Amino acid sequence: MELIADMHTHTIASGHAYSTVNELAEAAARKGLKAIALTDHGPAMPGGPHLYHFGAIRFIPREIAGVRILCGTEANILNEHGDIDLPDRYQERLDFVMTGLHEGCGFDGQGIERNTEAVINAMSNPRIHAISHPGNPLFPLDYEKIVKAALDTGTALEINNASLGISREGSRPNCEKLVGLIARYGASLVVGSDAHIAQGVGVFDDALLLLAKAGITETQVVNSSMARLLSFLHLPPL
């Protein structure tokens, strides 16, 4: 399966990443990608960008080095109601809103029931396109409920390549279970590298092996074609 976009990348604005927008775009061009999503963390993340970052994101060109730039975020779920740390007026300005549960953002140690409630409530927000790294063992979820809710709301679930290697140790068994349920129910997913430096852009090897093993179809993967991606995000071509 070919992926045409990396839907999870971080710039220096996240506070714990090491490359600029231009460096990420140039790396994506070298990899032959057609698009990248800039998904810097919301402001609840320790060291994360101020809301002004998302207010000024309009200054970023729509295309750099021949790569379409999708201005987005990886926001943080703050409570069981599914509220995130980016007000509606900022969400509306973005091409791609992904959100997830993260350490140090006020919703640690809540347990499987409250975590599941929080994620499902977040998915009810029509501005939220995807849930980031739901396989994180630090935030256990009822995966069958999550996949069914994703299908009902049209939300994509992320398969995060870094979770299968250098991040979030212990994620692989959860991701395997999650992908099996996505295949069974026909839900949508996005694949992201979770690159925190330019060299990580477009690295999907482990994620693609996981998808192939589970029998995920190309039509389920939002970023498997530009037409599918733009349709999912309700964006026009450039």
Write up this protein.
The protein is an alpha/beta fold and 238 residues long. It contains 8 helices and 8 strands, in the order βαβαββαβαβαβαβαα. Strands 1, 2, 3, 4, 5, 6, 7 and 8 form an 8-stranded mixed sheet that branches.
Short description:
The chain is globular. With 238 residues, the chain is of the alpha/beta class. The protein is 32% helix and 16% strand.
Q: How many β strands by DSSP?
A: 8
Q: Sum up the overall morphology in one term.
A: globular
Order of helices and strands: EHEHEEHEHEHEHEHH
SS class: alpha/beta
- Count of alpha/pi helices: 8
> Helical percent range?
25-40%
Strand content: 15-25%
Q: What would you report as the Rg, rounded to the nearest angstrom? A: 16 Å
Low-pLDDT ranges? none
Termini separation comes to 24 Å
- Mean pLDDT across residues: 96
The major β-sheet equals:
8 strands, mixed
Give the helices and strands, then pairings.
Elements: E1 5-9, H1 21-30, E2 35-38, H2 51-55, E3 63-64, E4 67-76, H3 88-91, E5 96-100, H4 112-123, E6 130-131, H5 143-153, E7 156-160, H6 171-185, E8 189-192, H7 205-214, H8 226-233
Parallel strand pairs: 1-2, 2-4, 4-5, 5-6, 6-7, 7-8
Antiparallel strand pairs: 3-4
Which key features would you list for this structure?
8 strands; eight-stranded mixed beta sheet; 16% strand; 238 residues; alpha/beta
